[in-house]
Amino acid sequence: MMHLVSSPRLTFALVAMSAALAVFVASRDARLPCRSGLVPHGARCCAELAGPNACTSGIDTRLAVPPARVRFAGGNVELRGQSFERSSARNVAIDLESFLLAREEVRCADALAVLGSDASAVTAKLCAGDASRAAGGLRFADAERICAALEGRVPTEQEWERAAGSGGTRYPWGETGATCRAAVWGLATGPCGHGLDGPDTAGARPGGASPEGLVDLAGNVAEWVRTSEGPAVKGGDFTSYDASSLRVLARRTPPPEVADARHGARCAFETAR
């Protein structure tokens, strides 16, 4: 009887082959079309084109229509931490009251309408003339202020995880790995593209929507949440080149006062009592 013997060299080779396959799949998928109604332009999916070199969509000085919201019932859910990338991670069980979460990330239209001249230089530059773009460059206080103006709040980490992993899956769209159709990721230095210096139009890749229809929970901008240790960001972003950073349980804890093009927001709301 033949026995297979594991070795560090064999393990490394298998991991390398899997990583190469993931890059190949992502690269093969990178030129898939944007969602209906958007215009492909380099690494962006534009609402409109302003000449040959820029995306555009009108900026309104008023708050946009209240964001579409999805209701999540209270109760228990188990989130899967175990995966190929991190087989030793534990699963996480959470128990929450019901809440609402915005279907899309905060857009530039609302960020500029609320923040005005207080918007960071990063946000002002990214959002110039492009109302439909997901707002990047948001500090944690900016996210709080925008959500409050929309009569909501920054979600807790557990609320965000509950929404992103409602089916107990590792990714918002399910168990399958990340592709360029599913999320706005790997667009700064690959594998999905090169040169993108900010987030894409909100909802540009509906192929990665959650079962409830929430878009961009993985990729585009990392979204601010509240944790017991302080602010954190969830969901990966347009620069992410490692699919594991898009998983539901992944998070980073950047300085909350720093304006970073990778950071944005999605608002939570209370349910009617």
Descriptive terms for the model:
three-stranded antiparallel beta sheet, alpha+beta, paralog of FGE (formylglycine-generating enzyme), 273 residues, 5 helices
Overview of this protein structure:
The protein is α+β, with helices and mostly antiparallel strands and 273 residues long. It has one domain (35-269): Alpha-Beta Complex (paralog of FGE (formylglycine-generating enzyme)), CATH 3.90.1580.10. The protein contains 5 helices and 13 strands. It has helices spanning 8-29, 108-115, 121-127, 140-149, 157-164; strands at residues 39-41, 44-46, 48-49, 55-56, 69-72, 75-79, 92-96, 99-102, 222-227, 230-234, 251-252, 263-264, 268-269. Strands 11-10-9-12 form a 4-stranded mixed beta sheet, covered by helices on one side. Helix 2 packs across helix 3 (121-127) and helix 2 (108-115) crosses helix 4 (140-149). The protein is globular, with a radius of gyration of 19 Å. Residues 1-6, 10-30 and 83-88 have low confidence and may be disordered.
Strand order of the largest sheet: 11-10-9-12
What integer value in Å does the Rg equal? 19 Å
Low-confidence stretches: 1-6, 10-30, 83-88
In round numbers, the mean pLDDT is 82
Q: Considering the protein shown, what is the CATH homologous superfamily?
A: paralog of FGE (formylglycine-generating enzyme)
The name of the CATH architecture is Alpha-Beta Complex
